[in-house]
Amino acid sequence: MRHVVIIGSGPAGLTAAIYTARANLSPLLIEGLRAGGQLTTTTEVENYPGFHHAIMGPDLMREMRAQAERFGTEFVAGEVTAVDLKRSPLSLTVNGEERLETKTLIIASGASAIQLGIPGESRLMGHGVSTCATCDGYFFRGKELVVVGGGDSAMEEATFLTKFATRVSVVHRRDKLRASKIMQDRAFKNEKVTFIWNSVVDDILGDKVVTGVRVRNVETGRTSELNCAGVFVAIGHSPNTSLFAGQIEMDTKGYILTKNGTATNVPGVFAAGDVQDSRYRQAVTAAGSGCMAAMDAERYLESREG
Ligand code: NAP
Questions:
Q1: Burial category of 243 from C-beta neighbours within 10 Å (exposed 0-12, middle 13-18, buried 19 and up)
Q2: pLDDT at 306 (0 to 100)
Q3: Is 136 noted as a catalytic residue in this protein?
Q4: Cα–Cα distances in angstroms (integers) from residue 267 to residues 95, 192, 251, in the given order
Q5: In this predicted model, what pLDDT tens digit does every residue of 98-114 receive, in sequence order?
Q6: Looking at ligand 1, which residue's alpha carbon is closest to its atom 9?
Q7: Homologous superfamily of the 115-233 domain (CATH)
Q8: Which of these is catalytic: 136, 274, 277, 296?
C-alpha cells in the first residue's frame, strides 16, 4: 500500500511530489492525459519567481518533474479512471486496469479553460490565442486585442489588457453582461475598451499567428472581420473533477471544497491547485497549495501512525 498518491502533474501535483518525496513518503504520481498540465500549452512564463529572463512553460514543467524525480517520485503515465474514496485504504484504478491502494491522496487534477470550439482556436493557441491575460498580456504591447465573454473574467482580462494593448474589443453574445457591477463599471469607464454586443466569434484568422477574427452578429446574421493580434477567450474554466462526483464535497461549479489548508471532507484526501481554486489560478499559487497539501498529508499520516 502507498503512503501518498498524487493525481496530476501540473505545478500543484509536482510540488506536492517534491515535498512528499523529500519527506520519505515515496509518492506515486499519476500524470494524466496532458502530462505537465496547462503550462505545457503556454510559451514564455514571465511571472514564475526565480526565472528573471522568463522560462518556456514546457521547460518549467520539465524542471519541476526532474526535481520531483530526483527525490524518488515514481511516475505513472496515463489517467485515473476510477476512485473509491469511501473505503480505507483509498482505492484507485489507473488506465482502466491497475488498482492501487493508498493511505492519502492528493488531488491536483487542475482545471481546463473552456474553449469556443471554433476554427483556428486550437491551432493558434499560444500564437495569439490565449486563455490567460495575466500570463500572456505582456506580449501584446501596442497591439489590438479581442476578448470573448461577458463575465467577471472577461471584464478583468479586458481591463488588465489595456495596460498593454492600444484597444481591446469585448465580443459578447448578448446585450447584457453577466459580470458584477463593479467589474462592468471598470470596463465601461476604460476608454480603451469597446464592446461588440450580440455577437460571437466564428473564426480566428491567421496562418502562423493571429491576424484577426470573424465576428457574427447573432441578431442580424451579418459577419465582419476585425483585425487583432490576440484573442483572449474568457468564457470560464471547468475543474477536472468529474471522476470524484458524489464522493467528495464540491461547490456548484465542481470545484473541490477544502478547509484547514487543503483538507477535503474525506479523511486522507487533500486537494491542491486549480481543482480547488477558481480565483487565482496561477502556477505559483498552485505550487504553493501543492506544498501545503504535501505537508497536510504528512501530518495526517503522522497523526494516524504516531
Ligand atoms: P462566467 O461567469 O461563467 O461567465 C462566462 C461568460 O462567457 C458569460 O458572459 C457567458 O455568456 C460567456 N460564454 C459562455 N460560453 C460562451 C460561448 N460558448 N460563447 C460565447 N460566450 C460564452 O465565467 P467567469 O467570468 O470565468 O467567472 C467565473 C466565476 O469566477 C464567477 O463566479 C465570477 O464572479 C468569478 N470571478 C471573479 C472575479 C473577481 O471578482 N475578480 C474575476 C474572475 C472571475 P452569457 O452571459 O450569455 O452566459
A1: middle
A2: 65
A3: yes
A4: 25, 50, 18
A5: 899 999 999 999 998 89
A6: 150
A7: FAD/NAD(P)-binding domain (3.50.50.60)
A8: 136
